[in-house]
Amino acid sequence: MENKDALTGTLVRLPDGQPVRIETVHSDGYASVRRIEGERTGMIAVCATDKLEPIVASLDR
Question: Domain 4-54 class?
Answer without folding.
Answer: mainly beta
